[in-house]
Amino acid sequence: MYYRLKPLILAAxxxxxxxxxxxxxxxxxxxxxxxxxxxxxxxxxxxxITSDRGIVTRPGRFTxxxxxxxxxxxxxxxxxxxxxxxxxxxxxxxxISEIQRDVFVTALSLKYGFSSxxxxxxxxPYLNINxxxxxxxxxxxxxxxxxxxxxxxxxxxxxxxxxxxxxxGVDGMPYVIGVFRVKPPTGDGPYDVDQRIxxxxxxNPIGVELRDRPTGSGFWSFxxxxxxxxxxxxxxxxxNLSYVYTLKEEQGFENGGTVNPGDVxxxxxxxxxxxxxxxxxxxxxxxxxxxxxxxxxxxxxxxANFDRIQVGSLSFGLSQRLGPSTSLxxxxxxxxxxxxxxxxxxxxxxxxx
Length: 353
Prior knowledge:
Elements: H1 35-46, E1 62-86, E2 89-113, E3 118-135, E4 146-155, E5 159-165, E6 175-183, E7 195-199, E8 205-210, E9 221-232, E10 235-246, E11 249-250, E12 258-260, E13 264-274, E14 279-291, E15 294-295, E16 308-321, E17 327-335, E18 343-348, E19 351-352
Antiparallel strand pairs: 1-2, 1-18, 1-19, 2-3, 3-4, 3-5, 5-6, 6-9, 7-8, 9-10, 10-13, 11-12, 12-15, 13-14, 14-16, 16-17, 17-18
């Protein structure tokens, strides 16, 4: 079994400030006559596809960010039981199944800037998952298709994070920001929902499936990482690198004993352009390398067969500043690997108080 983490899409972040009490700001919260802050403004306005790609929140400022996203996945699996007589001729049975999945996520993020370099945040998601499976009965010579539906809804894994700006981005150096993220298993994991045994026409067990879709991973995860932002006219370059470590946990004899989910290496990069002082466009790529889940008793009920899987997606987004403390962003992600969602659309509306 694999746990995929999909990187979260963000298109607007707040800007930092210096600690000078005499500093004045214009109508959009930008310091007057401060070239270093103007550079930070540009970096934060443009480098804005994910939550890791922006300057930290200004000290004392509180941000509320409602968001909504829809991810769609479509995949086809082929199982063959038989043998080949010649390369062009197969004797046996072929089972083809098609899976369509729609995931709707409504989330609320809260951010607070403790200083000009430190920011803390919490994100609370609510998921609604619908999955349709169309197939013919396993390894049976029937022309009749059957369709099964399953769904799940509820609070997902809450995300707690802290970001710290390591430097000021002067002398031609990029901004370097460290991030640490923790996800407790607040959502229903795969071992928290009911399971049922799948049987063929003769009553022989051929697998196990979940009655409802899980809304969480079911495990504690910790993610340290670092991001880079480099303003260079007329664009801003950005990138991020992180490692997700997941704690193993005892899940019972029937589930393989102690389950150790695979760790994840995540990285991404991209660039952005500002059309004017209100509108910006960003283009980026994110990739995750997910290790295989290990079981103490090696009876993997979910049938993971590869040592690792690759999840890559291409994202492009448009951000529009609506006022001094509000912006609206729309981001589209397209999967470029088989295990990534086919498409994902995200809308966010950060409001600063």
